[in-house]
Amino acid sequence: MNYAIPAAEYLERIAKFQARIKAAGLDACLVHGTESDFANVRYLTEYWPTFEQAGVFVPAEGKAVLLIGPESLKYAQGRSMIPEIAQMLNYRESAEPDYPGIPLATYADVVKQSMGSRKLKKLGLVGTAVMTKPTLDAVAAQLPGVQVTAADEVFRPLRWVKSENELNCHRKAFKVAEKAVTAILNEMKPGMTEFQVIGIAQREIYANGGEYEGHSLYCFGGDRTSNGISRPTSAKLRKNEIIQLNIGARVGGYSSSIGLPVWFGKLPKKQLDLVQFALRAHKYTIELIKAGADAAGIAKAYTQWGIDQGWGDYMLYGPVHGLGIMETESPWIETTSKYKLQPNMTYQIDTFFTGDGYGLRWERGCVVKEGGCELFSKKFMNIVDL
């Protein structure tokens, strides 16, 4: 099986986006992406910037144009699924070289390339959370008189429901992650550094068909397990404390992550009790996910269940977040959510609890189905005492 999105599907995505742009009363949208937060741009074009930033100008009527920095033309021509490309100064790398001698486009040039003689009056911005000041300044200076508005919600729902091609990429990514976790559990030992454990995961990801890590890989112990977000260090693994693993691979653009707590020796009773409760909470959450379920209702049921079990003070946030090109993306399942789950929406079941100087996370992905959900990985759902 070819774990990639076919060119025709990218064109379908652009056509669907154009229909939403028109329905929103906009003439076009400017989509932004960076090397680390590239999902919107890659979703529309397959292009993933490196060093530089990138954008996609998508008109309600006309041709979508990939916007890149001055150095990436050959790379973009070989990767982009849309042929129209424009090099622009505001997408250059952060060292900000001048690039004398390279002809560069302005947004006015892009509008003409994309829309021809049609007028641009209302422009929506997508990716506003990562859009840079040079880009915003260039839009204001080069498109005077154009009304600009945030349009993230015009675009985001396109990425919620996955095609079979997308699901197959996710399934493969989780298989790769499973191999990486298995290798870690077979090879890790006290005295190894957290970096060495991550090296095992990276070896297995690339050896088994992953194109990249799905996210910053987690291996850390002690107090840092109480962090909602963290990174590995050169610290050595020790006995008698929780060690948190979160390992994800990327295949065909799509991410995975498998999270579990492990340890060597014996945990203090309070910590072991929390590990066991969190696993029950993880499995309880799986039971709540199905097509037609109210997202806020899932979060409220989970929260109340945790309180009733006596662990409410250890909860940090909602139990589920979106999964796609990014390991964490819209939509979340929170008590404030206002939507119902649809078939083929994909999520990470992210069960995180934090105590006094320790914490843990059980995590895996799923796809929503009628009457329940399909887990992308059924492994590592038991207590792992090494």
Characterize the structure shown.
The protein has 386 residues and is of the alpha+beta class. It has 2 domains: 7-159, Creatine Amidinohydrolase, Chain A, domain 1 (3-Layer(aba) Sandwich); 164-385, Creatine Amidinohydrolase. 33% of the residues lie in helices and 22% in strands. It has helices at 7-23, 39-45, 73-79, 107-115, 133-142, 152-155, 164-187, 194-207, 269-288, 295-308; strands at residues 28-33, 54-59, 65-68, 85-87, 122-126, 147-150, 212-213, 218-221, 243-247, 249-251, 254-255, 258-263, 320-322, 329-333, 346-354, 359-369, 372-375, 384-385. It has a 6-stranded mixed sheet, with helices on both faces. The protein has a 5-stranded antiparallel sheet with strand order 14-13-15-16-17. It has a 4-stranded mixed sheet with strand order 8-9-12-18. A hairpin with a 2-residue loop joins strand 10 and strand 11.
Indicate the structural class.
alpha+beta
Give me the CATH architecture of the largest domain, please.
Alpha-Beta Complex
Instruction: List the helices and strands in order.
Output: HEHEEHEHEHEHHHEEEEEEHHEEEEEE
Radius of gyration: 23 Å
User: What's the CATH C level of the largest domain?
Assistant: Alpha Beta
β-strand percent reads: 15-25%
How many β strands by DSSP? 18
Distinct helical segment count: 10
Distance linking N and C termini: 35 Å
Instruction: Specify the CATH homologous superfamily of the largest domain.
Output: Creatinase/methionine aminopeptidase superfamily
Q: Biggest β-sheet: count, sense, barrel? A: 6 strands, mixed
CATH topology of the largest domain: Creatine Amidinohydrolase
Look at the structure and give the mean pLDDT. Answer: 96
**Spatial order of strands in the largest sheet:** 4-3-2-1-5-6
Shape: globular
Count structural domains: 2
Low-confidence stretches: none
The percentage helix is: 25-40%
